[in-house]
From TrEMBL:
EC assignment: 3.2.1.21
Name of this protein: Beta-D-glucoside glucohydrolase
Domain of life where this protein originates: Bacteria
GO molecular function: beta-glucosidase activity
Hydrolase recorded as keyword: yes
All copies of domain Glycoside hydrolase family 3 N-terminal, residue ranges: 2-48
Keyword entries, A-Z: Glycosidase, Hydrolase
Record-linked Gene3D superfamilies: Glycoside hydrolase, family 3, N-terminal domain
Gene responsible for this protein: bglX_2
GO BP terms in the entry: carbohydrate metabolic process
Entry keyword Hydrolase: yes
């Protein structure tokens, strides 16, 4: 899955690697989830919105990478 590949490529093989980058789904998960179709607008990132729509779509792809 694309999300998993992105996280794994940024994290590298080890956190001690020189070019390893810590990743976070904070912005990745909700990017493009703005209200009204505008790039910079309000976003509903409540626990309920995240668990029922936004994060549910990306969770399967990111969990294997996060478990490393």
């Amino acid at each position: 899955m694309m999300g998993q590949a992105m996280v794994e490529s940024m994290q590298g093989k080890s956190p001690a690697d020189r070019y390893s980058v810590m990743t976070s789904v904070k912005h990745f998960a909700a990017y493009g989830a703005v209200e009204g179709g505008k790039e910079y607008n309000t976003v509903d990132m409540s626990r309920s919105a995240c668990s029922t729509t936004i994060c549910r779509r990306i969770k399967p792809g990111l969990m294997p990478a996060a478990a490393r």
